[in-house]
Fold these 2 entries.
Entry 1:
Amino acid sequence: MTDPLRELYQEVILDHNRRPRNRREMPEATHTGSGDNPLCGDSVTLYLLVEDGAIVDASFVGVGCAISTASASILTEAIRGKTPEEARALFERFHHGVVGDGEPPDLGEASALLGVREFPMRVKCATLAWHALEAALAHNPKEKP
Ligand code: ZN
């Protein structure tokens, strides 16, 4: 990774941390999942609204470091409009990208988070929201009234 690319990645993370997208509770959510990272003090709850087989809305609440907040923010943007299967596939690619040592996959803005692979202590920060996504999708959806 070249230095200008690294700076760009950092800018993406800083921007999402300063102005997190979709940081709100979602009472109408059909799926929720939570995760904690005691090592860093990060905590995130993810909300999904799945309708007609697609994730039509995604949001999160939580506290944590810049990386965990940016990761949750980027995640909610990345999975909107995808099917749960596509979101799961994105999780797999992201997780492989973070913990793997091969060529990083192209994950759009989420690629910014792959920089943590050089900092093993921060991997949990970057993957926290994604594990919450996996947990949310694994739950039985609430019946819509
Ligand atoms: Zn953290």
Entry 2:
Amino acid sequence: MSNMSATPELLRCEGSAGAVPAREVYPARSAELGGGLTVRRALPHRARRLVGPWCFLDHFGPARFEQGKPMDVPPHPHIGLQTVTWIIAGEVLHKDSLGNEQLIRPGALNLMTAGNGIAHSEETPPENTHSLHGVQLWTALPGRQRQGKAAFDHYPVLPVAGFGACRAVLLMGSLGDARSPAAAYSPIVGAELSAERDGSAELPLEPAFEHALLLIEGSAALEGEALAPDRLYYLGAGRRHLALAVRAGLRLMLIGGAPFGESILMWWNFVARTAEEIAQARGDWQERRRFGEVAAYRGERLAAPEFVGRLKPGG
Ligand code: MN
């Protein structure tokens, strides 16, 4: 995914200070991804920019189409983050400047670690099931790793844990005894919760983590209150359990992690610490340095927007 805004905001994101349970609701906003695909962006939200190291959450689809490419995000750069791609229906073809080409289908995870710089494209492949539904999240990389080497990993199978009527697939981190093989660089959890029958579920949470939920489809209730779709439910920290009432057909994302200990700056597709780092990365992309080329992609790459380098008042 890419921030396609012609005038992306410069956002400062700070980890949470308190470690107390909360119940805050933030509506996702619509964003265009090019090619006609509209996504709902749940993170960053003006009033909630980080959940642990998670700094970006796009929900795309469900969409049905007869022809064409509903997803066609041309080559664009990233620094300082990981992209975590999870497909619910359909398929996405990833191509990057390290030479990787990876088709992702439901049940598998694509994890791209940008480190000091990588470029990639994401598109609907020519042969497809005429459907598209999924999420992409970003995590901020901590100090030591953010200037490391770029990497791309594909995990075809992820661990599953059962909690009452819920089935949890571990994308990142662990829940109960299930641990994702995906490489993470700070204390984190990311899981898809689903239900094939009506019932209840109690999931163990790490009390040092802050957590949030995003309903993807179906229905569930938290502490007696039904969750609405495309709203980020921020739960704060200090919770040892998550008690849910679930209906068959539920699909819900759970994200969390230790409050991120560094103040980060986000702009366009970059996560950095200073405006100078962002200006440097933007210039390197425009001058075709540092990031390499996505040689397998047919078409033009994305041009970087102008970087003004100022935080909005109150931002
Ligand atoms: Mn991207």
